[in-house]
Design goal:
The complex is a heterodimer of chains A (about 130) and B (about 375). Chain A is built from 4 helices and 9 strands. With about 130 residues, chain A is α+β, with helices and mostly antiparallel strands. In chain B, about 20% of the residues lie in helices and about 30% in strands. The chains are: A alpha+beta (about 130), B alpha+beta (about 375).
Amino acid sequence: MSFEIPEDCYYLETHEWARIDEQAGTARVGISEFAQDELGDIVFVELPEPDEEIDQDGELGVVESIKAVSDLYSPLSGTVATVNEAVFDEPERLNDDPYGDGWLLELDEIDASESDALLTAEEYEQQIE
Amino acid sequence: MAQELRQPPLGDVHMDRGASLTSFGGWEMPVEFESIKTEHEAVRESIGKFDVSHMGEIEVRGPDADELTQRLTTNDVTALEPGDGQYSAVTDERGIMLDDTVVYNRPDDEGYLFVPNAGHDEELYDHWRSHREKWDLDCTVANVTERYAMIAVQGPESEARVGAVIETARDLGRFKIQSVSIAGVDCLCSRTGYTGEDGFELLCPWEDTRAVWDAIDGQPCGLGARDTLRIEQGFLLSGQDFDPESNPRTPYEAGIGFVVDTDTQFLGRDVLVDATPNEQFVGIELTERGVPRNGYAVESADGTPIGTVTSGTLSPTLGVPIGLGYVSTDHAEPGTEIRVVIRDDRKAGLIKNPPFEHPTVEQ
């Protein structure tokens, strides 16, 4: 089975992605298609509040499927700017569109150079093979 | 330390069908084919089939087969005519449940067959044999777990679908068992299941499982859907909702006092006659977002610890978080406000009497 792994994202080994806007100093964060497939039907998402400061690899909340609970980690340091409130009411968005409508949150005040510690799409693809 | 997992007869068939696998009770079993939600809905709305070959089978035959089984299970085995089955519990001398099981008086009048849960077959086989020696009874006990595969066909359409293959299945009463032929294979067919829906369980020879599996048209379902379906009904999962080592419970505490017949003599009876449970098995429904899970603490509305969650999920049918667990009897009344502690947060909920989802058949 092959999974979508967009080239314009960086990845954590724990299956979170970050899509960085270097000019704005922001990044959008979500979980990979592989992660949603492993978890199965996602039924609950817990995320930090806006303005909360997050460290790279720090805890970013929890995603629960019918069968499992999984901690989320942050690909980058930054401050939570926006949370995708729609996933609270429709957590299945993470299953249906993990890189689009199923995004989790946006960080600002990021340090884009931290992406050096993340996996490229190619490296991530090798990891989940 | 990795122990070799026991394989069901259709392992390869499930893999080809795209199943993801899980280890359960020492067996490698399919957890999910399409998705738990899809499979769950298939069983509630139409039909699903499960390979439940991880369930054990023990045969007890001979002049004292009924006495041995009567003294080792809590229900009244002598009430069973050939072709009858009953839900029951196996307790030890403390009245603690070792397992729950279904006991059948075989339709061919060839003794009893009972069905232990996954991973309990060896233990119960030894339990039967050692007590046969101790009480000097005359019967044979055989662990035939890997001689019988088991397929559960469940859902409102199961009578029509199974009836199309086995004409007599339509007339089979709840908890009855009969000898049938499916796709040329001699099987036992019982009207039982663990989903709350109408359904059948087919016991067939291990080597002919494929023919029987293919003969019944229905959504293949894994253990994931089996779990959400049984939680919606408030049915116990052996090893999780009770366990003689980690969570010792009497049948009364576990909410299945209806399978205890104290007019019969069985191991643990004298303790159970005088037992007053301090805790009771209950259903919990959260009124806030969150998913109750095994091991989470339950508190009263004022923050006093009153119990523990043993099973939980987001109900696929109802769309609300539901759980099962034990709370002190003075907080067990349906409607009592409680809190479940989820990652240090207290989520509000209510005690509910299962089934959360109403079954289509009387249990």
